[in-house]
Protein: Aldehyde dehydrogenase family protein
Amino acid sequence: MQRDYFDKARVAVGDSIAEKHADVAADVIDEDEYGHLIGGDWVDSTSGETMESVDATTGETLARFQDGTAEDVDEAVDAAWDAFEKWDQVSPQMRSEKLFEIADRLDERRAEIARLDSLEVGKANQHSAFVDLEIAIEQFRYFGSLCRTADEGRRPPASDDRLTYTQKEPYGVVGLISAWNFPAMFVGWKVAPALAAGNTVVYKPSSRATLSTLEMARTIQNVLPNGAMNVVTGSGSEVGNAISQHEGVKKVGLTGSTRAGQFTMENAATQIKPVSLELGGKSPNIVFPDADVEKAVQGTIIASWFNVGQQCTMGSRLFLHEDVKAEFMEKFIEATDDLTIGDPLSPLTDVGPLVDHDHLEEVQSYVDTAVEEGATLAYGGEQPDDEELQGAPYLKPTILTDVENDDTVACEEVFGPVLSVIEWSDYDEMMAQANDTIYGLASGVWTTDLDNAKKSADDLEAGTVWINTWNDMFEPSPYGGYKQSGMGRELSEETLEDYQQTKSVTMNFGGLPKMG
Structure:
């Protein structure tokens, strides 16, 4: 089975880029066709069908992977339960050692895996290697440490004849479904805490980005009992639904769109199974008049253009105070103009292509609609001039001014390099607009006034508030959303608890049973 946009993706980029990508692909991809990983074996789908993995920049086929079915998920779940009988008996200390070994082995393959994401998703290689992989590897080390030291339960005060205590237990088999924008990083985010908690895993990567997940799974599975990590590739409508509906999957963790989260909740509701969801965002990025403008500009570059805006935490609504707007915009546009748009495999590239042409068309449509609704195109909004890049799905960072908070571009998640600038003067009105969204994933504040920082942090309706920084995820603090941005937390101690259930035990040492 082949998706329509693959035909549209094949383009004529410059010869030097095409040749470089072909050479790198030959160097880092060993398989013409990948199987599912089920029970420690690489197997074909019961459908007999495969899908293409495509280079985001050149449109060339990189490899093929399995077009999975519900029957494949059945086999993976069975294999995961077989492995759980072994993994559940492994001590926290041994689980910790295994997770540290996984981290070390992934670190050895960091450059190779990062280049896979640069090929398949178009990620700037400096970002995939030193941000995405760094965070993914750190998750295995962090949860490896946490599972060794985490509280296994508690003991409430006992009476003379009774003892009560609690204990943490894994769910068993958990289903994990990830998005295409940070493929390698999500493996660390989801698999590390699930394994640390004692579960085994059935994992589905996005059909737009599979290769780094499959190669990471190869490394992870070599450390674990066969079947502790299983990977079933394919479409969300087939494989994703099969995982979230499966009676043998006792918990689901998903990163994806808000609509994908709704489908997952509907599927899980039939069995009342718990879900963790990290979904979309429309994050406000607020600049106060007392802000350090240089720091705020550099932080807003990260908030706006990192991963070409294909991030749920993008600070897509920039609230600029009227007193600082002119100075900020001049420096921000200059800093944006200094970014290097180019081949994602180049170490000099800051901005690579979007994931494919369908997505480019969708993002471009938001720009067109914004202008129709009265916004001013202050910068970008077009493909770069570089002839080497012509035909590939690039869009220059795009800055829209004169945007109203109820405009389409300010309300809906664009998921691309499109920034809406909203001027403000009154704090209460600005904060009301910042919170006037169905989302609540992240937010940011730039100020040198501690009162402004504290008040804003209290008033913002978001799971994360960054003060004078953005996308700062290297510290183990809880990450997750309010409202329709999801439920549950990742990257922290709360995540380990999310992948465990609590059992309460009360022992009676001789007294008569009590009623009530």
About this structure: The longest strand covers residues 162-170.
